[in-house]
């Protein structure tokens, strides 16, 4: 999703000072865990996991930076993207800790491997907010969407689509799950199975390293070989990138667009929305990122200033990480996005304009002909 120039820039640690920031509270990162003030400002570091998931560079990073500047105008902000590399993220985190960040906001490439970073931050009195993925090691707070519910929404949508097409008894589905190193993927998978098990036959199922669309293509090719394209009546793909890989494999096997089985996705990427309006992908899970980023910024400020976490309209709950430690957590509700509610979701929320969705070949779709 990003060009080589962007990858080169964001893979390296970049320090971005918020407007008017010329001071950091003394004692940041002290083992005493001193608190800070919004008036004086403090130093926040944001670590995102990869460049191939479109949302991180396009939305999470700028939305979080904007929200932090609004809530703490005198704060300093550091940002880095690991480009899918565990070691690179650890290096970036260590650089931020050395530079004196007072709070670390971490979307881990590998949740288990991130425990070392979390422990190092804790030893320096630096609280860690797990963002989007629950890192291990005893983070101080977690802000994400209800990942189990995401899987349920995907499963419910897939069943509804097959029931609408009258194909539920005519074949099998393929499940293309997320990365085995991502705890969210396990939650998505469990939620989907809760809905699908006993309702439909699962012919092939895969866990996909690094959420790779290319690997998803290879897996789908294997499913087609094993089952036959005519026997595949649905594909539960855990995100939009892998949905694109599964669809590419089906099309390469000679399946026409009008004959594609319903395929799920997640993240409401622009390419995913375009596949939906073109009739290639049935749905995606829409997770409105701006409220998530704003909430994460609020939790960051709460932790830095020693305040109680204020989740606003959301509920503060407790979740266990992979090592069994309970974490203060705030979970947002996902939405199923299909052709029927494109306008009511990503368009009305200002994520994409109709003109962006309808660029190039997509201008000829029925949706775009009516919308433009």
Automatic annotation (TrEMBL):
**Places the protein is found:** Cell envelope
Q: Would the keyword Signal turn up in this protein's UniProt record?
A: yes
Tell me if Signal is a UniProt keyword of this record: yes
Listed InterPro entries: Bact_Solute-Bind_Prot2, Peripla_BP_I, SBP_2_dom
Q: SUPFAM superfamilies given for it?
A: Periplasmic binding protein-like I
GO CC annotation terms, alphabetical: outer membrane-bounded periplasmic space
Name the PANTHER family on file.
D-XYLOSE-BINDING PERIPLASMIC PROTEIN (PTHR30036:SF1)
* Name of the molecule in the record: Solute-binding protein
